[in-house]
Amino acid sequence: MTTPMPPPPPGPPPSSGHPVQLSIVHQEGYSRGLALLGVPIFYGRHIALLPVYVVVFIVGIAAFFTAWAMQFAVLFTGRYPPGAHRFLTGFLALSVRTNTWLLGLEDRYPGFRVAPDPTKSVVLDVPHAPEYSRGLAALGCLLFVGRVIALIPVIVVLYVLTLVATLVAWLMQFAVLVTGRYPAGAHEFVTGYARLSARSNAWLFGLTDSYPGFSLQP
Q: In 10 A of CB 35, how many CB atoms?
């Protein structure tokens, strides 16, 4: 009698191959108290985040004009100054941590650091390339109008995903409140939404030349 062959090992998870990556650690357990803040349509979490929103707003103004100025730098030199790239990546990292806490993907408060997460629980990686496209920089010179137009298909997808991801994240507040756990599938989906949003913002600011596409995968 022929011995049946064992099933092949599972392959690696699908990958988008995009250079901008976002990973959010899925915790073993989540705070029921924080979930309670999210049950009334996230109002409690929004109130708790007010100090961070003030910082994000102020730093966001500086980030916008820095990114705009960098479009001219790239247009003339083909390079994105590393200091500006670090600052803008740090701003995006703070924004991602804020949304991550709002949606309950992690319990640790986002803080106010305009820098990558030192605990590595929320990791946004935006590689600094040696050269950047002058043509794409030209799209951003008129206050990013050209880049926004080019992003319209992604913006439409993100609009729909925002509605779905917000609903899923809200329902997960009830799941955490009852069980203390955030279902892995829901966590993966909401993280994928945050990943696509981060890629879109990175491309808008010219931090990467790779178009964000539509994939939610790493």
A: 23
Residues in contact with 175: Cβ distance below 8 Å, sequence separation at least 6, in sequence order: 181, 182, 183, 186
- 24 secondary structure, DSSP code: E
Alpha helices for the chain (secondary structure H): 32-38, 43-48, 50-77, 82-102, 134-140, 145-150, 152-179, 184-204
| CA pair distance 88, 6, nearest whole angstrom | 50
Domain boundaries, the chain: 27-204
Compute how many other C-beta atoms are within 10 angstroms of the C-beta atom of residue 78: 13
Both tokens assigned to 15: 């990958």
Residue identified by tokens 């979490």 is 45
pTM: 0.90
**Does residue 132 contact residue 79 with C-beta atoms inside 8 Å?**
yes
Instruction: Name every residue whose Cβ is closer than 8 Å to that of residue 114 and which is 6 or more positions away in sequence.
Output: 59, 87, 90, 91, 93, 94
Residue 99: the pLDDT is: 97
d(CA 32, CA 38): 10
Picking from 30, 157, 45, the residue whose alpha carbon sits closest to that of residue 105 is 30
pLDDT of residue 5: 54
The length of the chain, given as a count of residues:
218
Q: What is the pLDDT of residue 211?
A: 98
Cα dihedral sign, 125-130-134-135: negative
What's at 54, amino acid-wise? V
